């Protein structure tokens, strides 16, 4: 399945995401539906920026605390992505929080239903992931979020019709929506561990992996988690699976779409 996501850079995020927020896809258990809980303006990017500021003012290190946000138009916006968010205390370590940006008392537009469902299917199809339980904030924490309309929709399994519309920013993962580009020149040094390798080429490779929606931390350190993501990608692309970023894996990271 292919989806399109507006990146943090595209919607105008004012803050970065700190390190140490990676959690492996094997730990994902829940897709948790949220809402803003107040009036929602028509400028979706402004709404996302407002939520980011609100969460930041609460002292949350990762803002917006949701993995993704979905607007009335069916546009999907990147929050913390597939990193560990701050959205529901019991579910931060095993759930992906998704904010559906509708106001109290508002019905869910069909485009929003379609996009949220498509996002769910895309997350469940990530390497190493399983079929996530569809749930809502109030099921895990004493809160009225996400309101009766969204709660009932989640209870019903988030039914939708057709596919998600195509907002402006393609997702970086494999399959449809993948944007190929020429790989930067190979630097001549294998990216491998142990020991943990810290060179600029590591950051370049990690940034491309993150751009393609692999849940990897861009910290410039090639350690066990980077190696694990590398082996998963190599397995998908039918490369030699050794967890080492050599010339072939380097090129494939930038140029080859993942297998469906």
- The SS-based structural class is alpha/beta
What is the average per-residue confidence, as pLDDT, rounded to a whole number? Answer: 88
**Strand order across the biggest sheet?**
1-4-3-5-2-6
Q: Helix amount, in percent?
A: 25-40%
Percent of residues in beta strands?
5-15%
Sequence of secondary-structure elements:
EHEHEEEHEHHHH
First and last CA, distance: 8 Å
How many helix segments? 7
Tell the overall outline: elongated
Q: List segments where confidence is low: pLDDT < 50 over at least 5 consecutive residues.
A: 163-177
Number of strands: 6
The profile of the biggest β sheet is: 6 strands, mixed
Q: C-alpha Rg, in Å?
A: 18 Å
Would you summarize the structure shown here?
With 260 residues, this protein is α/β, with parallel strands linked by helices. 30% of the residues lie in helices and 9% in strands.
What does this structure look like?
- The chain has 260 residues and is an alpha/beta fold.
- 30% of the residues lie in helices and 9% in strands.
- The chain has 7 helices and 6 strands; from the N terminus they run E-H-E-H-E-E-E-H-E-H-H-H-H.
- The chain has a 6-stranded mixed beta sheet with strand order 1-4-3-5-2-6.
